[in-house]
Amino acid sequence: MLGTVAGGGIGAVDVGSDGATGEPVELTLDALPDYVRAQEASHAPRWVWSDSAHWLPGLLTSGVTVARCHDLRLCHGILARSAYTGDRAPLVTAEEWRRAVEEPVVASPTATLFDLEIEHADRATVPADLPAALAEFARQRAALDSSGADGRRLRILLAAESAGALIAAEMRSAGLPWSAEEHDRLLSEALGPRPASGMKPAGMVALAERIEGALGVRGLSIDSAPKLLQALRGAGIDVQSTSQWELIEHEHPAIAPLLQYKKLARLLAANGWSWIDEWVRNDRYRPVYVPGGVVTGRWASSGGGALQIPRRLRPAIRADAGWTFVSADVAQLEPRVLAAMSGDRAMAIAGQGKDLYAGIVESGAVPSRQDAKIAVLGAMYGSTSGDAGRLVPRLRRIYPHAMRLVDDAAATGERGGIVSTWLGRSSPAPDPEWFDLQARAQANAATAADESRARRASRDHGRFTRNFIVQGTAAEWALAWMADLRLRLARFPETSGDRAPASGSAFERRAHLAFFLHDEVIIHAPLDQAEAAATAIRDATAAAGRLLFGDAPVEFALDVVIGRTATKE
DNA sequence: CCGCCCGGCGCG
DNA sequence: AAAGCGCGCCGGGCGG
């Protein structure tokens, strides 16, 4: 247990596995890293602290890593909302911890970008002092004890969520190896050489001229959607918006250069040269990962768009000399998770082997792989029209258990109810306006418009809860996967080879996690540890499946690639 | 001038 | 004009 004490020092208390607390120790901030290092060496406790994002960056900067923690902020967020929690009342009424449920922490990227001092991570989030931490930990233990058999799943979820907080901080500390040179080369190839600041790259200027010529307009502001729309319509192109999926339907000489222009404009704005200047230092990109930042339990990110790096820039992810990447992604994670949680044997069998969609085609449900994909995504997202609307009912016949689970989740959501993931992360209730809308539609004075608005809101929320249980369970599977993998990698020997100067912590001197994207990890590994890291990923995949779903016959198929650039496919 | 919303598009 | 979930970020445009 770690917390601040009056006067600005640090207080620490040993917490036994039975929850018994020992004598408090008082430390100065400077003495903290050595204290934590010593505790790790002697008995590797599970550190209980207010907020990993508060405590860990400074420790990592000092070269200290911790094996396990219990993150009170993240765990409060789960327990205070979970339908699995027996008695939530004491947590819900703990006012000072409410932010943990209401708003995920988004660190200020500018404040913490290259300076991982503890002071900078000290944002107003949840209480960081020792008495508050002790009180909250006691509430959380009591909440778990009141949860009966569901407590087992919640405990797994809390451990996985807390491990995710460690991984997020460690990955930020390590950074993603990134070649600014390769990035610049890719940009120049697409856009032309870097222009003076404020100027458009030559590639975009040339396309703009072609677009103006084709539309018969001079001085068009292509970047202004209203002006562009007006110009398109003026040229006889009957569109309602300027989005690419609508433009692509029309035949006109302006369309091709316009679509190309939009691609380049996006690349320049989101990941152009100023992105490199802002986010890449010493061959490292250091995004802020936000564990639990999405209601479903997925991570969010803040700063540089870490979870939206375009595929075409993947070649800029470049391992250090003497190192390589081991990249792995899970094929069709979400449908596999759905098969497991619903106990749908037929769907599980379709997923035996690499490609679940091919298995669905073999089952005879649909004629082609593309149809299988549309049908499965449609089932999980709640599509009712188009190809998906036609294909989903076939799935309902062949995989009744899987479909029943998501259909029930949707029905619950349409009524304003709450659904939960496999391990017990629960969906937020609709806001009061939603219930107002439903009540108004039920009233005697309700108009047809009231009823249709209410029905639409109801369906919208049903699609949200339908997807919530699958996306959320996939997210906790991924957390369990990474948590297991992280501890396997931590047992690798430290490499004796040369290392880039950016390295600070011990975990960076062996194979370590460098990137995570929902169903995909990238490990940065010394060349001689790459094969072992690949094995660790495969072992972690099996372990995560067992931890969540026991002996259910579901396979989680992996694509593993070893190489110095982290390209996919 | 600032904050906010929104269209649009990148990722899963 | 998206059908069909979850995000973050950008620039334009608007209201204050």
From TrEMBL:
Enzyme kind, highest EC tier: transferase
Keywords attached to this entry: DNA replication, Exonuclease, Hydrolase, Nuclease
InterPro entries: DNA-dir_DNA_pol_A_palm_dom (IPR001098), DNA/RNA_pol_sf (IPR043502), DNA_polymerase_A (IPR002298)
CDD domains: DNA_pol_A
Any GO MF annotation of the entry: exonuclease activity
GO biological process entries: DNA-templated DNA replication; double-strand break repair
Residues in DNA-directed DNA polymerase family A palm domain copies: 310-529
Reactions mediated catalytically: DNA(n) + a 2'-deoxyribonucleoside 5'-triphosphate = DNA(n+1) + diphosphate
E.C. no: 2.7.7.7
Ranges annotated as spanning the membrane: none
Keyword Zinc-finger: no
UniProt keyword NADP, yes or no: no
This protein's name: DNA-directed DNA polymerase
